[in-house]
Design goal:
With 284 residues, the chain is of the alpha/beta class. The protein has two domains: 111 residues, Rossmann fold; 157 residues, Rossmann fold. The chain is built from eleven helices and eight strands. Helix 8 packs across helix 10. The radius of gyration is 29 Å and the shape is elongated. The N terminus is likely disordered.
Length: 284
């Protein structure tokens, strides 16, 4: 026979963060009871409970026949809540205490007792994943959400646009887009139209000194064609005169639109990235 509604066992979670830790543990335990002839329900999750005042407010909503699971890292607040619940004979469990006690004994040090640290780590992780996805989709002039970019890198071929984009996305969670520049009026007009929705302070032009860039392009060409006779077909790509023309074209374009310019010649990706972050005002 089915249980009456008032026979359902009610559970609440109290957390100084999102409550996800207690929720996952509860799910792992309660799955063992699903085949039993009982009914239970998580009726509420109280989040960001970080003071005695907020605990007192939560306690007003808890009945004596509830099961209370809580994940509060502060020893003072956890003990305060436990004492209050014990006086009312409410069944409760601090899900963090057993693990903290055992881990502290094993490591020989006390924890930081700082609430919300796991959520901070998770938020940073998922932000970086999203940023990497964005950078991949907006590499080499692709993508259709350039207005969401934290930084748009512009530069002629082989000026490290992609490596810098991926470094900033992977390490700092920045939405990075990069667009190649070609000394062609039609191409430039198309690029400028795309940048209409991007603030000037988010646009960074990358340059590399012509002699260095020509050498890099020549090496790249040899890798692509294997040093065969086809290398001659790519001579314009690394010819110092052509490279110098492209260099002048890009610097003039950057100057005309007052875009920030970063010289990447013989510089580490980390050093270049720090300069870009300082320019856009990013605080690590």
């Amino acid at each position: 026979m089915e249980q009456e509604l008032d026979e359902i066992k009610n559970i609440v979670i109290i957390s100084d963060g999102t409550g996800k830790t207690a929720h996952r543990l509860m799910d792992a335990v309660l799955i063992q009871y699903y085949e039993k002839d009982i009914s239970f329900s998580l009726i509420n999750t109280f989040q960001n409970v970080r003071s005695r005042k907020s605990i007192n407010e939560v306690l007003k909503q808890i009945k004596d026949d509830y099961l209370v699971l809580f994940s509060i890292i502060s020893k003072d607040l956890a003990e305060y809540l436990s004492t209050k619940l014990s006086k009312r004979r409410v069944i409760h469990l601090n899900v963090l205490k057993p693990m903290l006690d055992v881990t502290s004994k094993f490591l020989g040090v006390h924890p930081d007792y700082m609430p919300g640290k796991l959520q901070i780590v998770n938020d940073n992780y998922y932000r970086k994943i999203d940023a990497i996805d964005y950078a991949v989709r907006h590499d080499d002039g692709r993508g259709d959400e350039i207005e969401r970019a934290d930084v748009v890198l512009l530069g002629i071929s082989r000026t490290c646009k992609t490596p810098i984009s991926m470094y900033l996305a992977c390490n700092f969670g920045l939405n990075m887009a990069n667009i190649p520049l070609v000394p062609d009026p039609t191409w430039v007009e198309r690029v400028l139209r795309r940048l209409l929705c991007v603030k000037t302070r988010k646009i960074v032009g990358l340059i590399m000194q012509p002699d260095t860039l020509a050498s890099i392009r020549e090496s790249r060409s040899k890798i692509l064609v294997g040093g065969s006779e086809q290398l001659g077909e790519l001579m314009d790509y690394y010819d110092i005169r052509k490279v110098t023309q492209e260099f002048r074209f890009s610097t003039q374009l950057f100057e005309a639109h007052k875009w920030q310019v970063v010289d990447v010649t013989r510089r580490a990706i980390e050093e270049i990235s720090i300069e870009i972050m300082e320019y856009i005002g990013y605080k690590r």
